[in-house]
Amino acid sequence: MMKKLFLTVFFYLFLPHFQNSFAWGREGHQLVADIAKSMLNESVKGNIQKYLGNISFEEAAIWMDEIRSDNQYDYMKTWHYINIEKGGSYIPGTGDNIIDRLNITYNELQHKQTLPTQTITTDILILFHLTGDLFQPLHVGYGSDKGGNTYQVSVNGKGTNLHHVWDSDIIEEEHIGLNDCLALYKTLSLAQKVKIQNTDFVGWLNENRKLLDAMYPTTHKIDNAYLNKNKNIVITQLLYSGMKLASILESLFLVPDTRIVVAVPEPKAEKITVEDATKYIGRKVVICSMVYGVKELASVNFINVGAKYPDNPLTIVVFKGDKGNFKNGLGVYENKTVCVTGTIKEYKGKPEIIITKPEDISIQ
To answer: Which of 1, 93, 266, 351 is deepest in the core (most CB within 10 A)?
Structure first.
C-alpha cells in the first residue's frame, strides 16, 4: 500500500493524470478549500504547501475526483461515501468508506514524522477532498438509491438525479460563493465555532444524516423554489466543511517538517495544435488558437478555445482565487487568438489547462 501511495503522488505531480468530478462539483470543493485557506495562518498554509508543491489548495480539493477515471485508482472509489439505511448506524470497518478512511488518514498524519513525505502529500489530498464529501449529506446517505444517484428528478424541465442537484445545481443556480459562506461565519458565536471544529467525523456523519429526509422533494420535479429554499443549507454545509478542514489542518501542520522535499525539474513545454490536445494529457504544452467564449461563474471561470462550447477541443480554467491576477479581466481574450502554456488535464472527458497568472496566456 505504501508503494502504491507513493506512485499515486508521483503520477499526480509529474506524470499524466485524469479528471472526473463526482462530489459537490468543482465549485463546491473549491469553496471548501477557499474557506479553509481563509481561516489558516500563513505559517500553517506554508507548511502544507511544502508538501503540495505547485498544487494549489483548490486543485488539492478535487484531486480524488480527478483520478477516478483511471482504473489504477479504483481502490479509492468507495472512500467517497458510506451507505447506511434509515435507522442504521455507523459500524467501524477496514477503511473502505469515507468515515473509516478519514479516521485512518487523520491518525496516520498524527505521526507524520515517521512517514515518507510522498505519503503525507497523498494523505493531505485525501483529507481535502473527503472532508468536503462528508458534508454533502447524500455521501452519507441511503444505499437503496445510492446516495440519491438513482433518484431521478427534473430541474426546471432538465433531467438529472438528486445527487447531482446537491453536488452542483444548487450552488450554480443560486450563485453561491465564498462571500456567502464567510457572511454566515460572522454570525456564529465562539461556542458554535468551537463545536463545529471539534465535532469528530462520526459526529458529523450523524449530524449530516439528519438533513437527508428533507432533501427529497415531494415530487420528482424540482423548481426554483426548491433550489432557493435549500440555498442556505448548502451554504451552511460548505462553511462547516471548510471550518472542519481548517481545524484538522491546523492541528496537524502547526509545526513544520524540517525534512527536505526533493524538487523535480519543470518539464519543457511542447507546441501542439488545439485539435491534438487529447493526445497530450499530463504533458506541458503550448497551444495557440482562437477563443470562442468566456464564461465567468462564482468560483471558477472558463475560456473556450478552438470552437464554441460544448464543441471546444480545449478549455482554459481560471479559479476564482487566481482571477484577480488578471487585472484586465478575462473578457479581453474573447474572439482573440491566444497562446496558452500549461499542463493538459482531463475533466469529464475533455482536455483543459488550469492557469493562474497572465503570463500563462498571451494574445497574438
So the answer is: 351
